[in-house]
């Protein structure tokens, strides 16, 4: 099960396993995209503003920030199958709570419960896949898993809008309940039990310290993105988060068994997935935040037309997922990572020139280029994270990487918001302001490309199947 094709448990891995885990990823992405699309309707139903209703999103993200770091430990301690099935059950019950919520408080609490389940779903799904397939088959298996995830993000806004327009937004969450429970049953039936790995001891103090710091950072990033980076609440939270975060890092560094094992950064692939990979995830968070504004302000499109433009790169991403194993086998991790990052930088510069005078063919070219590079980079970085990780360290690596990705996306949105506010001088942003923001943020993937360029040409060959300079890929 841990990386050799001769391992008996690998041979016995059910063929349906990637599709079962794909259902988990689909549900997670669908929910994340759906809640954002229906926020105005939810706010109106509860007689609240959209800002107040957005606490439902924040509650979910806070739960992710707190529990994602221990997801790998949970999988080691209790076994991936048990944790994944339990996470789906919790997620489904949280969805039922959202559907039944009679007020904003109940909605926020139910979303927090969903977040606890969601924090375990995708990370533990990755652990299950890594421990069920040899490295040589991992990329192909994960391509199957991540394709439906993109489909969930593509379908959610339209289905959410339809439910809210012609029925009730609650239908979405009632629909999630049976899907989550059915997925839990499939997990129990088809995910190999495996033997739980003796995990490193979990320090309650480290869990609490990092939980407070990461939850606070998530809220702060959200406040910055919403233009609320001022006032007593913001600075009071900052006064709590900074010393708590510093204390958590100090404690982690001196602990005999740290919650985040920084020794994992000695593996070059993992260090690259965390370092320049973070710049990519920041870009991935910032672009969906800026593009709708650019289409509506810069091109004068309405929300529906803007959505149709962004759908272009989402559909391209869906198609590209299937090509990931072939591309990696042909070119290897280093070349693909560098090239994708360079294309993302070029696409961001292209977005900096979007305006009414841009021909539609050129606009579509920018969107397609972004969709291709973004899709491949997501898949490649997710696989590259584990390229040099030993089986017993998969859980620790998953918690570490999951925490970084979660914060990177939020930080990317916050950074885009700050840059936009500074360029706009605190007023309403113009199309030119958004263009300039895209141009500045192009530096993120450009720097990432230079950092990826320092990697060895044959890094991760056992996983990619790439044969540099005629040599056989290592096993």
From TrEMBL:
Q: Which domain of life is it from?
A: Bacteria
Q: Does the keyword ATP-binding apply?
A: no
Pfam family, any one: MFS_1
A GO term for molecular function = transmembrane transporter activity
Q: Where does the protein principally reside?
A: membrane
Query: What keywords were assigned to this record?
Result: Cell membrane, Membrane, Transmembrane, Transmembrane helix, Transport
Q: Which cellular component appears as one GO term in the record? A: plasma membrane
Q: Which InterPro entries match?
A: MFS, MFS_dom, MFS_trans_sf
Q: Write out the annotated subcellular location.
A: Cell membrane
Q: Note the topology in the membrane.
A: Multi-pass membrane protein
TM ranges are 16-42, 48-71, 83-102, 141-159, 171-191, 203-226, 232-250, 270-291, 303-320, 332-354, 360-386, 407-424, 436-453
Please list the residue ranges annotated as the Major facilitator superfamily (MFS) profile domain: 17-460
List the Gene3D superfamilies.
MFS general substrate transporter like domains, Multidrug resistance protein D
Q: What is this protein called?
A: EmrB/QacA family drug resistance transporter
Q: Which organism is it from?
A: Celeribacter indicus
Organism ancestry = Bacteria, Pseudomonadati, Pseudomonadota, Alphaproteobacteria, Rhodobacterales
